[in-house]
Amino acid sequence: MNKSITHIFFDLDRTLWDFESNSHDELMAIWKRNGLHQKGISLPEEFIKVYKQINEECWEAYRKDEMTKDVLRSERFRRTLAYYGIDDSTLSEEIGIQYVSNSPQRTKLVDHSYELLDYLSNKYELHMITNGFEEVQHIKLANADLDKYFGEVITSEMAGVKKPAQKIFDLAIEKSGAAPASSVYVGDDLVVDVLGAINAGWHAIYYNPHRVTHNHSTLADVQCLSEIKAVL
């Protein structure tokens, strides 16, 4: 146990909750459920690839406050359908609702998530900071049986700002009773998670399965969550 550390904070999507797998499974279900092959979208994997690119663009606009949550939910599907020449606002709205309702019910986790959380929960106070939507993230936590591990769950909607803004890290300190110098943030995004935490005066562990190179001072870079046990 690292005696200088008392509180560990986690990101959720792509760090513990396997966003890529769960999203892929739901998008496949959407393609089948809505008969998109009959509307000219014959290749589901291509549909998912197009959607993912558009979704990233919409999320970037959301992070910059250039798009609201409600607009994002359907706009990403409207643009995806438009790519295939489908102009159907009703269908894009329906698919947007299906995705937000169903994907949080999926429970695939990043390998070794439970193992790591079981280990850390006996040594530290665990909390979460996430940019995901308030209601969606709590559903994910409950369905994947993750909520039992975390004290405070700080969402960007609760904080009124999104990571990497320091305000969301400061709110987490306030609500958890931690001190920045005694806190570690674990996340998969170099800018949003790692630099956000470091700039707030925290330690950071970079979950870096793709071996992204950088020159920032982290407590550790790990490719597998199980490696964190040797650090903490």
What's a quick, concise take on this entry?
The protein is of the alpha/beta class and 232 residues long. It contains 9 helices and 6 strands; from the N terminus they run βαααααβαβααβαββ.
Give a verbal description of the structure.
- This protein is an alpha/beta fold and about 230 residues long.
- The protein folds into two domains: about 5-20 and about 110-230, Rossmann fold; about 20-105, Orthogonal Bundle (DNA polymerase, domain 1), CATH 1.10.150.
- Helices cover about 45% and strands about 10% of the residues.
- It has nine helices and six strands, in the order E-H-H-H-H-H-E-H-E-H-H-E-H-E-E.
- The chain has helices at about 20-35, 45-65, 70-85, 90-100, 115-120, 135-145, 155-160, 165-175, 190-200; strands at about 5-10, 125-130, 155, 185, 205, 220.
- It has a six-stranded parallel beta sheet, sandwiched between helices.
- Helix 9 links the parallel strand 4 and strand 5.
- Helix 1 crosses helix 4 (about 90-100), helix 2 packs antiparallel against helix 3 and helix 3 packs across helix 4 (about 90-100).
- The protein is elongated, with a radius of gyration of 19 Å.
- Its EC number is 3.1.3.5.
- GO terms for molecular function: 5'-nucleotidase activity.
- InterPro entries: HAD-like_sf (IPR036412), HAD-SF_hydro_IA (IPR006439), HAD-SF_hydro_IA_YjjG/PynA (IPR011951), HAD_sf (IPR023214), PGP-like_dom2 (IPR023198), Pyrimidine_5'-ntase_YjjG (IPR052550).
